[in-house]
Amino acid sequence: MKIESHPAHVAAATTPLNWKQGFAEDFAGFPVAYRRVEAEALHEPRLLCWSDEAAACIGLNNSDVERHAHDFESCFAQGQVEYLGQSLAPIASAYAGHQFGVWAGQLGDGRAMLLGDLPSQASALDWGFDALDSIELSDRIEVQLKGSGQTPYSRMGDGRAVLRSSIREFLGSEAMIGLGIPSTRALCLYASDDPVFRETTETAAIVTRLAPSFLRFGHIEFFAHFHHHDALNHLLRKLAQKHYPAVLSACHEASGLSDDDFYKLALFKSIASRSGDLIARWQSVGFCHGVMNTDNMSLMGLTIDYGPFGFLDQYDEDHVCNHSDHQGRYSYNNQAAVGAWNCKALALAFRTVLSEEAAPYLAEGLQAYRSAYETRWQERFAAKFGLMPAGLKTQHKSDDPQTAQSDEQDLDDDAGPSIHHFLEQSMEMLQRCKPDFTLFFRRLSKTSLQAPQECSEIRDMVLDLASFDAWWDAYRDIAQRQMSRLRWDPGQRQAMMLAVNPKYILRNHLAELAIRRARGDHGQPDYDEIERLLHVLRKPYDEQPEFESYAAEPPQWAKGLSVSCSS
Ligand code: AMP
Ligand code: MG
Fold first, then answer.
1. Where does ligand 1 bind, in terms of residues with CB under 6 Å?
2. 305: CA distance to ligand 2 center in Å?
3. Pocket test for ligand 1, best of 35, 150, 154 (most atoms within 8 A of CB)
4. How far apart are CA 411 and CA 409, in angstroms?
5. Which atom of ligand 1 lies nearest, measured to the CA of 95?
């Protein structure tokens, strides 16, 4: 929504927000889980951006923003929340984690605080899941401030977030939802002139984030490592009841395991599988998280904690988006393996509240991670190339069930394995040719397979022409064979490809330009660019010809942009 400046004292209409503090209620018996905290208000805060779509998830519309501007400022820039007329202190939760592969001990919300939760109007799609994903969402949404000041878990930090990283988080998380990738969301962003000291003096901002739950792998690791087993058992049951209810009702009589063991194993498997699915989706749009520590892994399978993240411009499987990641632990191509490593760390934490007999079954959860990753990876990348992976049913032109059946047979018997192999070869070609990842697939989606010279637009982007030409011949062959087998016309192939090959992603240089303008680096601060980017990234698979320049490769000045952990 376009933000108009508003008078400081808008008539105080009763706020439409029906706050609760479910986390405190859930953990009332476990004081080790959290601390009450007070937000450090921003001085003279300015509302920089507001996401209408995220607001709709908590039942707010545009007129609410105008009518309740003053109340919203107290909530989201000052951390003041009322529940049944009583002021409700926010909460910082304790967690732990492995950072860069090393046990980091106790951590916690060092600069984030949970204001409480609100009734949900969101569907699975609003969190970036597919309509087909079987996601159970609780009927409340958690609301968290990031950058709202120190907490008992701040360690040496100042509890603040700078404007630069807050704009990146705001745009990054909303862009992921546009792409159809599960994520926490950003409701709004307030900024002020309060100084914050990083490598240079910057200014403070607070992003309000929404999620069905902000629980991380690190929450489970915290209770497990410090032997808070009652609290851990309690957490797992709450998590299952609220977000994974199917694991409590699954029939397990034949397993020989106790009810307790059985549901925990099923819960672990579901979390691992969601995580594998998520990371495969990241790969498919070239998203690099940058800091995949276990405290930054969501138990809901959401992308969480946007720091030095980035999207691939030029394809390079070894790309490291976090300038501080000297070993390349979190490079693009390592993300799947790191996800598996993180699931192992989570398994070890689960292990502490499982019986001896049940523990070996944790391996099934790790397998579930791998198979969810592989299935989603193949599905997405096959679709990106306009191909159909084995075992997937297709939109068949013929209504005749007999023909349909024989075609599926064909796919499984013949094209399936070869497509898997072909996808691997295609990734090798991309690595040698290093085209712009997003533009390559977008242009491929529009390239006819009929005429050999049609590929010139993509051929112009590659470094290794011989590799590309050999690949192109093989590609045309396999794609044409499959199209005739499936009786697809070029329009069907193109529609499938355009639905998975975005035209617009949040390239670093686009975020950087919005940041520079918001900071007023070259004149008066202006926030229109954030608004425009939010608008474009809402519909990344649409053409939006008026925003063509946002689809372009980075300009020369932006090639050396680096993003570090400092935020
Ligand atoms: P991150 O790498 O941003 O996920 O942060 C890792 C841990 O450090 C978390 O516990 C954060 O809450 C904490 N943290 C990061 N930056 C700050 C800061 N400026 N002040 C206090 N705590 C911070
Ligand atoms: Mg974090």
1. 107-111, 153-154, 157-160, 291, 296, 305, 307
2. 5
3. 154
4. 5
5. 10
From the CA of 161, give the closest atom in ligand 1: 19
- Surrounding residues of ion ligand 2, Cβ less than 5 A: 296, 305
Q: Ligand 1: distance of its center to the CA of 154 in Å? A: 7
For residue 165, the ligand closest to its alpha carbon is 1
Q: What is the pLDDT of residues 240-279, one digit of tens each?
A: 999 999 999 887 777 789 999 999 999 999 999 999 999 9
Of all helices (H) and strands (E), which one includes residue 145? strand 140-146
Question: Residue 189 C-alpha to ligand 1 middle, in angstroms?
Answer: 18
Residue 109 burial (CB < 10 Å; 0-12/13-18/19+)? buried
Please give the single-letter amino acid code of residue 366. L
Concerning whether 295 is annotated as a catalytic residue, the answer is yes
Between CA 284 and CA 376 the distance in angstroms is 9
Residue nearest to atom 17 of ligand 1 (CA): 157
pTM across the whole model: 0.94
CA-CA-CA-CA dihedral for 261, 267, 268, 270, to nearest 10: 150
- 71, 261, 295, 436: the active-site residue: 295
CA atoms of 206 and 211, how far apart (whole Å):
16
Rounded-to-10 torsion of CA 282, 288, 289, 292? 90
Closest of 553, 540, 565 to residue 508, by C-alpha: 553
* Residues 142 and 214: beta-carbon distance below 8 Å: yes
Residue 385 is predicted with a pLDDT of 97
Q: Which two tokens stand for residue 345?
A: 């760390």
Q: Is a pLDDT exceeding 60 seen at residue 90? A: yes
Q: Cβ distance 121 to 144 under 8 Å?
A: no
For ligand 1, the distance from its centroid to the CA atom of residue 436, given in whole angstroms, is 33
**Burial letters 426-439, b for 16+ CB under 10 A, else e:** beebbeebbbbbbb
Phi, psi values for residue 492, rounded to 5°: -70, -40
Output the CA torsion sign for 432, 319, 511, 1. positive
pLDDT classification of 295: cutoffs 50, 70, 90: very high
Q: Which two tokens stand for residue 232?
A: 């851990």
Tell me the DSSP string of 434-462: --BHHHHHHHHHT--SSSGGGGHHHHTT-
Question: Can you tell me which atom of ligand 1 is nearest the CA of 307?
Answer: 3
At position 50, the amino acid (one-letter code) is W
Pick the ligand that lies closest to the CA of residue 104: 1
Q: What are phi and psi of 218, to 5 degrees?
A: -60, -25
